[in-house]
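In the previous lecture we treated proteins in isolation. Real proteins rarely work alone, and many bind small molecules. This record shows how such a complex is specified: first the sequence, then the SMILES for thiamine diphosphate.
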Amino acid sequence: MSISMIGQVALKPKDYKSEVPVVWCPGCGHYGILNGIYRALSEAGIDPSRLMSISGIGCSSRAPYFINSYKMHTLHGRAGAVATGAQLIRPDLTTLVMGGDGDGFSIGGGHMPHLARKNVDLTYVLFDNGIYGLTKGQYSPTSRPEMTAYTTPYGGPEAPMNPLLYMLTYGATYVAQAFAGKPGVCAELIKGALEHRGFAYVNIYSQCPTFNTVDTVEFYRDLVETVPQDHDVTDLGAAISLARRTSEGCAPMGLLYKVERPTLDMQMTAIMDGVGGREDYDLNQIIDANRP
Ligand SMILES: Cc1ncc(C[n+]2csc(CCOP(=O)(O)OP(=O)(O)O)c2C)c(N)n1
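The predicted 3D structure, ligand included, written as tokens:
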């Protein structure tokens, strides 16, 4: 988001809590992520009246209800598409998208590459619990083969996708990963994402104690490994190498990649300014001429 959005207000994390009670299961990792989001919003000084929280459908996609902001709870898998439109029409506001691995990478999988390649100026926090929670436990694109669910009672035949590798490959300009059991790390990385101008993707592992019995808190604790201090966040090759370590059983936690590139709204403004300055340009005439 634009730098002018930073430090607008001095509010405490609790000031970002809405009056809606949080209804996730006891022990759900999504609580830790939500706390990280409250802290990040507070530390970045985001004005709640200038914040758009947008989600699809899922347990995680309920997050906007719990955040003091303007909000849209949209269609399953369509949060990114709706957010792109909202951000383009109001680039002066902060756009925060939240949702699950099913929402983002199953039904919403067709939208994710375009958010990254277009460099839409928004923060996308993906609550990655490796399962469909809301619909009571089906296999998701990030499920490990070991996970048994009622749609895969003997485990799954598919290799899980790697969200970090995916986002790096499609051109996201900020890519980070954390674990819900470390809300402080979540807060730091989400704050960085909110302050970043461009498409910022934060993948957060989140335990689902109700339906996912293999990706436990202990599993994630052992899995995550802090990004080395000497990692160069502008080096795409190095970021990709770190992301690939996930398949070797040690997932990077921290900021993997961060670069500057013109955002979609900047490019659109440049085009419209250029066209709008032309004497022969008349939008109504163009629309009339192209009417079917
Ligand atoms: C078009 C459509 N298809 C399917 C559903 C059913 N559905 C709702 S949420 C969901 C998956 C939720 O999983 P995820 O996005 O990983 O979020 P979680 O609940 O685990 O946080 C599905 C399949 C739906 N609501 N709409």
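Summary for your notes: The pocket of thiamine diphosphate is lined by residues 57-60, 76, 99-103, 107, 127, 129, 131-135, 140 (CB under 6 Å). The radius of gyration is 19 Å.
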